[in-house]
Structure formats: structure tokens, C-alpha cells
Specification:
The complex is a heterodimer of chains A (113) and B (114).
Chain A: E1 5-7, E2 10-13, E3 19-24, E4 31-38, E5 42-50, E6 53-57, E7 64-68, E8 74-78, E9 87-94, E10 103-104, E11 108-112
Parallel strand pairs in A: 2-11
Antiparallel strand pairs in A: 1-3, 3-8, 4-5, 4-9, 5-6, 7-8, 9-10, 9-11
Chain B: E1 3-5, E2 10-14, E3 19-21, E4 24-26, E5 32-38, E6 44-50, E7 56-58, E8 64-68, E9 73-78, E10 87-94, E11 103-104, E12 108-113
Classes of the chains: A mainly beta (113), B mainly beta (114).
């Protein structure tokens, strides 16, 4: 158990809908990362938050947004969903000290029908 | 920009045989290097990491990797494969500060034959 929790585990929805994925980092970790894993794109970095502020952005679509709350949990919002958004979404957390070891949650599997 | 190359998508070995999974990176400065393992329907688990110092790094489950700067490589090895090693393996790089995201290779699926 990495100490990072993600809910829900599975999500099935229709095209055009909006969903919210939730992540709670390890106790004490200030940094949260979101990654998308798909068969065609592999594991891709989406966005990073550090202590409530956006720190870095990767290949994140404009339809996607995220935030980190004062209690350090984070939410990834996906809107106007398309079939191609079906993927595993991972959250990872880190204390950003030293070598930046990131601890991954179990992921949320999103299926868009 | 940094990139990670994992040659091949699938490696099959016999139980008890040597496991060798290759990873090369492209970077203007030496990065931090990681190997993660993903078992079916699970998240990613860190196997080992290289930061600074000793270039031969030992990880969990008997795996080790050697950082070779001249070859920009970080190959993962295990002397004797076990059935439980069957999984997908990802090599990744990161840096400090504002560029601390992980950049992953495409992953290699390891199969272990009885």
C-alpha cells in the first residue's frame, strides 16, 4: 500500500459527460501529480500541484482541469468526454525532497461509452 | 527535452533465467532514474532508483540496475526469474525543482515460462 488513495476505482460514463476523479496523497506529501495511461499513448504526465498551486503542466487537454485543496487532496475534472479519454488515470504524491520518489495510487479506470 | 527508450515491448524468459530489461535515456544533464513495476490491474510500484553516488543500485525483489553515464543507460537485471516477476516494467526519468515530473518509457511486458 503506497498510502495514496484514489476514488472511484472504476467509472463508466457516456460521451459529452463530465466526471471528477479524486486523490488523497500520502500523509505529509505536498506535491500531487496526475498521469494518464492509455494503450496508444502510454504513461503521460498531465499536471502537478504543489501545496495548492499549479507547478507544472504536461499534455493536458483544455477540457481537463485540476485543483489541489487546502487539505492537500486533489481532483481531476474531465469534461466533454470523448471515447479517446478512456484510460487509467493515476495520481502520485511526493514530498519533493531529494530524488523526488513518487508514490502512486491504484488508479481510476475511466470508460467512456 | 528528455526521453526514455525501452527497446522491445515484450520479453519472455524461463523461470530461473537471467532477466535483462534495457533502458536508455536522452538528456542534456544526468537525470534521476527509476524503474517501476505494474502488476495487472494495479498501480505502479517503485523497484529501485538512482540519484547520485554508487552506480549499481539494488532494489526490491532481487532486482538491480546499473547507471552508465557514457552509454546513457540504466538497464534492469535479475539473476534468476521467478513466476511472480511477470508484470510490466517502466523506466522513468525526472529532475529536481520545477521539472520533477516523471517521463516514462513505453514499458516492457515480462513473461516468465515455467
Amino acid at each position: 500500500d503506497s498510502g495514496v488513495t484514489q476514488t472511484p476505482k472504476h467509472l463508466i460514463t457516456a460521451t459529452g459527460q463530465r466526471v471528477t476523479l479524486r486523490c488523497s496523497p500520502r500523509s505529509g506529501d505536498l506535491s500531487v501529480y496526475w498521469y494518464q495511461q492509455s494503450l496508444d499513448q502510454g504513461l503521460q504526465f498531465l499536471i502537478q500541484y504543489y501545496n495548492g498551486e499549479e507547478r507544472a503542466k504536461g499534455n493536458i487537454l483544455e477540457r481537463f482541469s485540476a485543483q489541489q485543496f487546502p487539505d492537500l487532496h486533489s481532483e481531476l475534472n474531465l469534461s466533454s468526454l470523448e471515447l479517446g479519454d478512456s484510460a487509467l488515470y493515476f495520481c502520485a504524491s511526493s514530498d519533493l525532497a531529494g530524488a523526488n520518489e513518487q508514490f502512486f495510487g491504484p488508479g481510476t479506470r475511466l470508460t467512456v461509452l | 527535452a528528455q526521453s526514455v527508450t525501452q527497446l522491445g515491448s515484450h520479453v519472455s524468459v524461463s523461470e530461473g533465467a537471467l532477466v535483462l530489461l534495457r533502458c536508455n535515456y536522452s538528456s542534456s544533464v544526468p537525470p534521476y532514474l527509476f524503474w517501476y513495476v505494474q502488476y495487472p490491474n494495479q498501480g505502479l510500484q517503485l523497484l529501485l532508483k538512482y540519484t547520485t553516488g554508487a552506480t549499481l543500485v539494488k532494489g526490491i525483489n532481487g532486482f538491480e540496475a546499473e547507471f552508465k553515464k557514457s552509454e546513457t543507460s540504466f538497464h534492469l537485471t535479475k539473476p534468476s526469474a521467478h513466476m511472480s516477476d511477470a508484470a510490466e516494467y517502466f523506466c522513468a526519468v525526472s529532475y529536481t525543482g520545477a521539472n520533477s515530473k516523471l517521463t516514462f518509457g513505453k514499458g516492457i511486458t515480462l513473461s516468465v515460462r515455467p
